[in-house]
Amino acid sequence: MLAETICSAVSAAGLGIAAVTAYRKRFLAATRIAAYSLVPVALVLTGLVEWVSGIVFNPTVWIGFGLLGLAWLLFTATRAVERRGLGKAPKPPKAAKGTPQTEAVAPTASAPSLGTGERPSPAPRSAPAAPADDFSDIEAILKKHGI
Questions:
Q1: Could you tell me if 36 and 56 are in contact, meaning their C-beta atoms sit under 8 angstroms apart?
Q2: 47: which of 31, 74, 83, 112 lies 20 to 30 Å off by Cα?
Q3: d(CA 52, CA 48)
Q4: Average pLDDT over residues 47-75
Q5: Does the pLDDT of residue 132 top 60, yes or no?
Q6: pTM of the model
Q7: CA 68 to chain CA centroid, nearest Å
């Protein structure tokens, strides 16, 4: 009941401000203010304000939010433990170097293509610029600042 009264008062004040703005010949701003001031009354009439106030002032809803937070905390804790490897089963021992593996690591993988092994010769490179040319502007800046 209190929330509905506050929303109605806010809307009435907004419509009053819109009327004063329209009196000053600022019709576009007055229309925008009137539109904003009608929103609280619309929320009251749709029942949204009553629904939200029922959620906020109901203790069982807060217990539900607390349980959701606890569930989230448990999920994140188990993920952290899983990432550190504390909750994993021990890994089976690896096969020795001389023993062949019985199953393929990736049985559906395609075989690598085997070409002739020749590579094209690289294009000749031009001679690099002299190091003095690369750092001359940096040296000029450092000398300018006395470094």
A1: no
A2: 31
A3: 6
A4: 91
A5: no
A6: 0.43
A7: 21
